Amino acid sequence: MTTARYAARESAVSEPKTVRPFAVISGAQVQQVLQGREKQIVELVEATYRLHGAGDSVNPPSYFLRFPDRPSSRIIALPASIGGDVRVDGLKWISSFPENVRAGIPRASAVLILNDHDTGYPFACLESSIISATRTAASAALAADWLSRERPRPMRVGFLGAGLIARYIHTFLAGSNWSFDDIGVHDLSADSAAGFRCYLEQSGTAGRITVHESAEELIRLSDLVVFATVAGEPHVSDPAWFAHNPVVLHVSLRDLAPEIILASTNIVDDIEHCLKADTSPHLAEQLTGNRDFLQGTLDDVMAGQVKVPPDRPVVFSPFGLGVLDLAVGKYVYDEVVRSGELHVIDDFFHELRRYG
Ligand SMILES: NC(=O)c1ccc[n+]([C@@H]2O[C@H](COP(=O)([O-])OP(=O)(O)OC[C@H]3O[C@@H](n4cnc5c(N)ncnc54)[C@H](O)[C@@H]3O)[C@@H](O)[C@H]2O)c1
Asked: InterPro entries this protein is in (predicted)?
């Protein structure tokens, strides 16, 4: 591998039908680009949702690889293509091994492959657990903003599930002008709750921090509720807990029983994607035999086509779109190119003449 001052060659290879050298971008480089840029990334995610809503993307269903001998684990393939100024194709390949956490390493690991729009050649492999957590958190912060515009801005946030994704969501809320009087935490694992509390204290965030013993107490006391557990099936089923009409970011997708979904305004990122894989909205569809409980997508809300009444809970269930990973991944790639620190694998593509 060599480190090349790449900016000059980059403009040369943007001509059609030239094979770009293959680059590898490490997690350290990804983090260096994304850190402190929460507002830009939220704007990028908003633009990408709008592009997707306008049809300038291809985002087929995610493919779930599961294992009979390791039922709690999975690896998901998210292929996608995005137009607009980004103009890139690619694939996120992301593992979820929840048992990792007990061994002290994160649950999720991932790579993102970017493919050239004109030649199809892969031109970069990026460490992607950070990109994935970043786009997830940016989408949650974006949804919190748009879904609370018709109601008093939430001042009490509650995190149900206090792992890495919860940490990223808090960072993105804080980095995009949210502040809270109260921050509640509930986790089945006392260690996770304590670790998250420690992160909050070290981040210097304002607001009272409370670890709640029960999910009910946390939900009843929060007007912005973030679900980031690893629950495989619903464990919250009493609509009375939501009688105060909170904004609910249902990032872990499978926590809420259909009764809660049916009593709420439901917004998703993409309807076809979200009504799959036994998510809570999928369970509600199976129960009712229809999709009447779904009001639309976040893009519909941003376009003013769907209103979010303040007198009901609103639940955002984002399935997680590969186009978001592509947009954030391409942003990272462009920034690394600009910095001149792109690590290229020389001769990665070797058979480039048809007849040798
Ligand atoms: N929708 C998306 O686009 C998207 C993207 C990335 C991650 N996710 C989801 O976010 C979730 C969190 O991911 P993570 O990396 O932070 O995982 P993690 O393992 O680091 O943390 C999950 C935490 O949830 C806790 N938990 C599990 N069940 C619980 C319950 N019933 N009540 C309270 N706490 C509970 C665990 O003890 C753990 O501390 C996962 O479900 C993941 O699939 C969604």
From this structure: NAD(P)-bd_dom_sf, ODC_Mu_crystall, ODC_N, SbnB
Domains of the chain in sequence order:
23-131+322-344 (3.30.1780.10), 137-317 (3.40.50.720)
Condensed to tens digits (0 to 9), the pLDDT of residues 109-143 reads 999 999 999 999 999 999 999 999 999 999 999 99
Per residue in 251-266, pLDDT (tens digit) is 999 999 999 999 999 9
User: Is 236's C-beta closer than 6 angstroms to any atom of ligand 1?
Assistant: no
Binding site membership of 187 for ligand 1 (Cβ less than 6 Å): yes
145 pocket-lining for ligand 1 (C-beta < 6 Å): no
Express each pLDDT in 330-356 by its tens digit: 999 999 999 999 999 999 999 999 998
pTM (two decimals): 0.95
Q: Within 13 Å, how many C-alpha atoms sit on residue 230's CB side?
A: 19
